[in-house]
Amino acid sequence: xxxxxxxxxxxxxxxxxxxxxxxxxxxxxASCERLRDPKLCGEPLVVGMGYEAGETVGAVATASYEARExxxxxxxxxxTALERLPRRAAYEAGDLDDSERDETGYYRPVDMDYYxxxxxxxxxxxxxxxxxxxxxxxxxxxxxVTDRTAWEVADGFARHIKDRIRREVGVTVSVGVxxxxxxxxxxxxxxxxxxxxxxxxxxxxxxxxxxxxDLLHGVGPVTARxxxxxxxxxxxxxxxxxxxxxxxxxxxxxxxxxxxxxGEDDRRVEPKGDPKSFSRESAFAEPVAEPGPKYxxxxxxxxxxxxxxxREGALYRTIGVKAVTPPYDxxxxxxxxxxxxxxxxxxxxxxxxxxxxxxxxxVRKLGVRVANLEFAATDQASLESWERSEDDSxxxxxxxxxxxxxxxxxTGQSSLTDFS
DNA sequence: TCTGGGGTCCTAGGACCC
DNA sequence: TCTGGGGTCCTAGGACCC
Length: 420
Known about the structure:
Blueprint: E1 20-25, H1 28-36, E2 45-49, E3 59-63, H2 65-68, H3 78-84, H4 88-92, E4 106-109, H5 112-129, E5 132-137, E6 140-144, H6 154-168, E7 173-178, H7 181-189, E8 196-198, H8 204-208, H9 221-229, H10 235-240, H11 243-250, H12 252-261, E9 277-288, H13 291-312, E10 316-325, E11 329-341, H14 344-355, E12 363-371, H15 380-392, H16 409-417
Parallel strand pairs: 2-4, 7-8
Antiparallel strand pairs: 1-6, 1-7, 2-3, 5-6, 9-12, 10-11, 10-12
The protein binds a DNA duplex through residues 48-50, 58-61, 73-77, 80, 136-140, 217-223, 251-253, 275-283, 318, 320, 324, 327-328, 330-336, 364-365, 367.
């Protein structure tokens, strides 16, 4: 296969060694909180999502390393975290003995706007340090630094990035440098917090070999268990095994897993493209069976999602809902439209429609989603008029509220794109 | 581990088309 | 009426990531 003719454009140089840097902020939300409130430095700190001061609701978004010592983990219920690490406020209120002070910590609610502003400062430095940056999340990015450094000095280059971020922003990051994205990712995790790990091309296989399979990106609890059942405990085991059974059991992912375990990963660092979907979801404190509160929530979520899409300038062609029923069954329903729209009322109506089968069922969590996004700069006014003309005739159609017979969405579309 | 929110990608079956 | 093979789109669910 590899000896066969090459497609034009697929040149040998694509296979050249890259130098990939993965930068990962250390418990980012907690670091941000410490940035604006230095008294939190060195103290156990829990940042809770859905948490409000004094309450016990929500989940742990980030726990500082000091808080982790007490068994507080990310994704844990705040109520559990509080059992392991009571609030410092409880001590300060005199509810606890002096001897218990050191077994308390600070709790803060998530403040995304502030974290975003800190992340923007970090991003600026990253873009300064690399030609190509792929932001994966608010606290994580890949950099292709092939043209900015060399393997002999990669260590110093990575240290320079770390130092700049610490000096100029005030948060610490862990950095992994490797010839592939997947190895760089593992490397950044290798020595957290404030870590720096460089894996030279020649060291790649030795570096990966002893790692537990679940350290490989894309291997979660389910796959890890299955791999162990197959007798594969480490990346080295996976690298040395026959890839066929892996491919049979895991499909495309199996092939990928095998390659990654062998240090093979030809993905290039590329900037992230447009988002594929927007969603909003929310959980009830306990399962709710009555239709009233559920439909209220659907409405709120639908409005929020539609608003988000509008603000981002996105049109959507698919609208969906999610209903999580006890014990924890995730049900999704979605409907695609004949053409892309920006229509909050339609999101609301279709969400209602799709949710109908769960009307009287107990539900613990609800979600609304739009997908099949299009970001083409389009003329809003004429698009809306096209939707309106569809809405007017939808009452006669039983199969869809937006797809009346005889309407040609492509025509509506092309007349729009003519403007651009 | 009894479960928060926002995403991505893959799979599999069915409809539909040629 | 029975029947090949290939392709695309849609929907639902699952695993995973941060």
